[in-house]
Specification:
216 residues, mainly alpha, three-stranded antiparallel beta sheet, Transferase(Phosphotransferase), domain 1, 8 helices, 2 domains
Length: 216
């Protein structure tokens, strides 16, 4: 996979900073993001998790070349769950994602811009990609939790299955770390609200309900 960190994408990051100004600031500089992703791919692997192998770095063209991971993205898995196709096994992958994200948070690090489409499943193994916003012993774990959930559910209005997705993620997450971040999220009035433009009102209510129920 050849990834170019183009200067023009800085406009995208600047726009995201405006949209998420209450919750998260993104790193914009393309060379910084290239270097950050290079380090993050190696660092995540050192935590015992999986990332694509780095094959080449071409600084002059701002290119990072990594191993191609053939498989489904976790975004696909969530959509299969929403379509009620093999729902039980799909929730297992979502639970595994929660566990592995929690392992990163246990290290006091964060992913920064976690999207289910950037988590690739090959066989039964989960690979982290798209980690140019990774925070080394820094960042906001609550933002990771909310972004993962809301990005994963942005294409549905099915609150019933959405609840199962949220529940599966939280269950996996809490297997690896205390529920302190989930408790803080349940008390917040800004994290989930930042994603109201992406998710339906019914799904937003389901997310909040599942988070409150989980910590009770």
């Amino acid at each position: 996979v050849v990834k170019q960190y183009a200067k023009t994408k800085g406009v995208k990051w600047a726009a995201l900073n405006v949209w998420t100004s209450q919750g998260r600031r993104f790193k914009v500089d393309p060379l910084f993001r290239l270097g950050n992703e290079y380090k993050a791919l190696r660092y995540i692997r050192n935590l015992g998790l999986n990332t694509p192998t780095i094959e080449s770095v071409i600084l002059g063209k701002r290119l990072l070349v990594t191993e191609f991971i053939k498989g489904n993205s976790l975004a696909d898995i969530i959509q299969y769950s929403l379509n009620k196709t093999d729902e039980y096994n799909n929730i297992g992958f979502i639970k595994a994602a929660g566990e592995q994200i929690a392992a990163i948070h246990n290290d006091k690090s964060t992913l920064g811009n976690i999207k289910p489409k950037n988590l690739i499943i090959r066989g039964n193994t989960l690979y982290f990609t798209g980690v140019d916003q990774f925070g080394f012993h820094s960042g906001d774990p609550i933002w990771d939790i909310v972004q993962f959930i809301c990005r994963g559910l942005k294409k549905t209005t099915d609150s019933t299955v959405a609840s199962k997705v949220v529940r599966g993620f939280l269950f996996g997450y809490s297997n690896e770390i205390t529920v302190e971040y989930i408790k803080k999220l349940s008390r917040s009035k800004r994290y989930i609200e930042s994603f109201y433009p992406l998710i339906s009102p019914a799904v937003a209510r389901s997310i909040k309900r599942e988070i409150r129920a989980f910590i009770c």
